[in-house]
Hints:
- This protein is α/β, with parallel strands linked by helices.
- The protein has a single domain, classed as TIM Barrel (Alpha-Beta Barrel).
- It has twelve helices and eight strands.
- The protein has helices at about 15-30, 45-55, 80-85, 100-105, 110-120, 135, 140-150, 160, 180-200, 200-205, 220-225, 240-250, and strands spanning about 5-10, 40, 60-65, 90-95, 125-130, 165-170, 210-215, 230-235.
- The protein has an eight-stranded parallel beta barrel, surrounded by five helices.
- β7, α11 and β8 (about 230-235) form a beta-alpha-beta unit.
- The longest helix is centred in the last third of the chain and has 18 residues, at about 180-200.
- The radius of gyration is 17 Å and the shape is globular.
- Bound molecules: phosphoenolpyruvate (PEP).
Amino acid sequence: MRKKIVAGNWKMNNALGQSIQLAEEITEQLASINNEAVVVLIPSFIALASIEKIISGQKNIFLGAQNVYPKMNGAYTGEISTEMLKSVDVKYVLVGHSERRDLFYESAEFLKEKIEALLQADLTPIFCCGESLTIRQEQKQEDFVRIQLEKSLLHLSAKQILNCVIAYEPIWAIGSGLNASAEQAQQMHQFIRETISEKYDQVTANSISILYGGSCKPDNAKSIFSQPDVDGGLIGGASLKAKDFISIIQSI
Ligand code: PEP
């Protein structure tokens, strides 16, 4: 059975003290609920080492990173390696978030390199894909997402892709307060799973967790997560409040 996952992407929010406080609140509240989902906290790099200590030994809660550079080490000022992330027990890493693609011009080829570096280091990429509003209005979202998958992910072997998580994040829904409807999310998740099945096989496709991201909140999480091909969420804004994040986790 594929994993149910709820990951909180804190983006460029929270200084160290606030990050520690939020991680403590989430960990404490998680301990008091019956939670079967895998929970991933994705703070800024400066908070990783401190949060590792807070979540260490807790069931079903892991650390994620927002970025990685696909070289082992060396003269890459400002970047971070897989080895550095592993040294603070990071398990998951975001790749292809629309903010990285759009604001930092990360190409499909570069994302492919990151995915390969992560898999080589036994880290799990959370590969983000999703269309803009214009593409959705033209009804071209399936072609667009298929090309994103083909360019960065579908070159992997079946064994490798089983170690990846996919997040469908329509750009028009990220941070906008305008979430995809449960039906729109299901349609795209089913399409992504069929694309993987065509390239690999049904068993492989059925084993990969596909998360929804884009204005997922306590009041819409349940209907989105109840869809058969939605295996959880990648949560931005609502992951910055422990109460909202826990409520989303409880919607699984
Ligand atoms: C995100 O940035 O991955 C995201 C889903 O953000 P939000 O939940 O704020 O839309």
